[in-house]
Design a protein that fits this description.
Blueprint (H helix, E strand, L loop, with lengths): L3 E4 L5 E8 L9 E9 L5 E12 L15 E4 L7 E3 L4 E9 L8 E2 L2 E2 L4 E9 L2 E10 L5 H12 L2 E10 L11 E9 L10 E8 L3 E8 L13 E7 L8 H13 L10 E2 L1
Parallel strand pairs: 16-17
Antiparallel strand pairs: 1-2, 2-3, 3-7, 4-5, 4-6, 4-10, 8-9, 10-11, 12-13, 13-14, 14-15, 15-16
Helix pairs in contact: 1-2
Length: 268
């Protein structure tokens, strides 16, 4: 463990380390870990500990994340008020149910360039500071993988992803974020096939609303992107439905759309 020493008023020390599960978590699944605190020199009253899940997390060594960084999208809970006696070490369990719309940082081990982090903030005896910046890994659900595999079979490779603040219009959302996946046609076959596609999964407990458009992944605002087609798929369809056939149809339909945004996205 790598403890970070915080100094409160009068130089009162408190040591803290946040440990996040080693493997990736799934949207809708459990993120686990623990916060470990030590009072090396004297008795300390810990008033509160706050955890924040953030996008745009700093890629930093553990304990190097002083200051408010990252864009918060979820708040795991840990513990309230307690006292640490001199020399005592206390471990607080983290067990947080992730929202279904939690952004992905990887797909089948492929890093997407999306940095998600868990920030720990503590208030104790005059100490009030952000402590650890711990990267959190969130991987794709089987439904995400099945759809992306179908695009790959059609020659569209997953290149990268971007997460922006905001929501998809006319959707029920619990995380104020949109995540676009850039798919690039490596076959270059033309014939009405867009060279680049932008894919969005709006995931819930039943499945996904899938939004597909010609790519403009660097554009932050939904209404300034090209028009999108909307499709739906359920988690239980994985292994039962031929997504390849569906994806071929989706690509053809998006290829017929213009590049300027329409007032309403089309629905399948």
């Amino acid at each position: 463990m790598v403890f970070k020493r915080l100094l409160g008023m009068g130089g009162i020390p408190l040591e803290i380390d946040t440990l996040v599960q080693a493997g990736p978590a799934l949207p809708g699944g459990i993120l686990s870990g623990e916060v470990v605190l030590r009072a090396p020199d004297r008795r300390i009253e810990v008033k509160s500990i706050y955890l924040r899940l953030v996008t745009d997390a700093p890629v930093a060594h553990k304990g190097d994340g002083d200051g408010d960084s990252g864009d918060t999208f979820d708040y795991p809970s840990v513990s309230g008020y307690f006292t640490l006696e001199k020399g005592e070490e206390k471990r607080l369990r983290i067990r947080h149910r992730l929202k279904w719309e939690t952004p992905l940082s990887e797909v089948k081990g492929q890093k997407l360039g999306v940095h998600l982090g868990l920030h720990t903030e503590v208030e104790a005896e005059g100490v009030k500071a952000q402590t650890d910046d711990d990267l959190v890994h969130i991987t794709a659900l089987p439904l995400h993988e099945a759809v992306l595999d179908a695009f790959a079979a059609e020659g569209y490779a997953l290149r990268t992803s971007r997460v922006h603040s905001g929501n998809i219009p006319r959707t029920e959302y619990h995380v104020y974020r949109t995540q676009g996946f850039l798919l690039v046609d490596e076959r270059g076959s033309g014939q009405g096939r867009p060279k680049e596609l932008e894919l969005h999964f709006h995931t819930n407990a039943v499945g996904c609303e899938i939004f597909l458009r010609k790519a403009r992944i660097g554009e932050r605002y939904w209404k300034q992107k090209p028009p999108a087609r909307r499709y739906v798929a359920a988690h239980h369809e994985v292994g039962r439905v031929d997504f390849g056939e569906a994806v071929r149809r989706w690509i053809g339909e998006v290829g017929l759309l213009g590049d300027s945004h329409a007032a309403d996205d089309d629905e399948d």
